[in-house]
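Example 3.2
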Amino acid sequence: MPRWRFVFLTVFLCLPLAGVADSISLPNAPLDPQNATTPNAGPMLIAPFRYIPPAGAATSETPGVPVPTRSPEQQRIIDLNAAGDYRAVGTEGLALIAKEKPDDELQLIVANSLAWTGRLKEAIPTYQGLTQGKLVNEANVGLANVHRWRGRDEQAAPLYRTVLASVPDHADALEGLELATRELSPRTTLSLGGASDSSDIQRRSATVNHRWRDKSGTNIMEVETSGVKDSLPNIQASQQDVTLRYEGLALALKPSLELSMPTSGDSTLYGSIRIQLLEDQVSLSAGRVNWGRMATNPNALASRLAASHLGLTAVHPFSFGTLRGRVDYFDISDNNQILSGSLHLASTWRPIGNNFKPFVGVETRDAKFSSPSYWSPEQGSGTLYAGLLGEWGGTDWNFYASAQSGIGLYGDAGKSWSVSGGGKRWLSNDVAVSMNFWSMASWRDNSAYRAQSATLDLEKLWR
C-alpha cells in the first residue's frame, strides 16, 4: 500500500482538528468496509429534517414584544433574517454580541439562525443568555431543539415540559416533546433488506432489534438478532447472529460498546469500542469485526473472515460548510489489509432553497492485494464526487432524496453516479414504517459495475 496515500488521508483528516473547539456534534456514519461514503457504498442514512428553518421563520418581530430603536448594524441583521440569509445572521450576529448586548428579540434571531445553520455549539450560550423576560419560552424551545439535534433528547424533554407548564398549548414545545419522547421510548424494529450487483451477488437480510434506555436516559442498550443470506450462481452462504450494544452518554468519553456472536457455524466472539474526544468532535474506534458478513460476498461469509479494525472520525464546521473526515484500517484474517478514507463537505450554500444541500467529497480505498471475496483494489481507488441532498419533513413524516456524480482520481476508479432516497411515516403514535433505496454505477476491476439495495423497517414504540 503506497505510503503517500496513508499520509494524504491522515493529514487531510486532521485539518478539521485545528479549530475543533468550534465544532458541532454529528452522529457517526455506519461502518461500511466496501467504501467509506456514498459513491460506491450503500444507501445514505440521513438524520431526518435537521437544521431547516420552519415556515414563516423569517420575521423581525415577535408578537407582544415592543420593537426597540436599533442601530444600522443591528437593523442589518434584522433585514438579513427577513431575507432568509440565516448563515450571515449567525456570523454577523455573533460579532455584534461580542461587542455589545443586543435586545432580546435580536439575540433570539441570532440564536435561531445559528441553530438552523447547524452551528449548535454556538447557539447554546446564545439561547442561554435569554433566561429571563418575555422570550424565555422561545429561547427554551430553541435550546431544547439544539439538544435534540445533538442526540441528547433526555436533556431536551425537561425544557419542553418547562415551557408547557406555563403555556400548555405551545405548538413548538408540544411538537418537540413528542419527538423527544419518541426517541427516549423503548422500541422494537423489524428490518428486511435486499441488495444485488452486476457480479450476480445477492443478499437477503432480516433483523429484529430492541432498544431502550434507563430512567436517566443517558444509558442506551440494544439487543439484536439478525440473519443474512449471500449468494452467487455457484455458491450460497448464510449466517445468524446475536448482538449486544451499550452507549453511555453521561460517562467520560461517552463509550459505545458492541459484542456479537454468530449463532450458526462460526462461534467467534466479535467486539468493538468507540470513544468520543474533544467535545464529541473526534471519535476513535477499535475492535475485532465480522468481515465475512461485512463484505457482502458468499465466499467471504463461508470463509468466516474476521478483521481487526481501527477507525478515526472528525467533524468541523467552517463558514462555507461542515467538513467530515474518516479513516478506517482493517487487518483481515486472510493477511490482507484495507485502508479506506473520506472527506465530505456539506456546503452551507443554498442556491435553490433551504431544503436542498449541495455536497462534495473525496473517498479512497487501498488494499495490500486483490481478493475475489471482497472489493480490494490492488492499485487503489480514489473518487471525487459532488451532489445534492434534499430533505423535507414534519412531526409525523420525513423524506430525503440524494443524487451525485463522480470521477476517478487514481487506480481502479472511473466515472460514477448514485441516487438514494427514503423516508419515514408514523402510522400512529407508536408505530412507524420507513424505507430506503439506493442505486449506483461505477468502475471496478477494469469493467463497469452496478449495485442497488433497498430496506424496509417497521418500528413499534413501547410507552
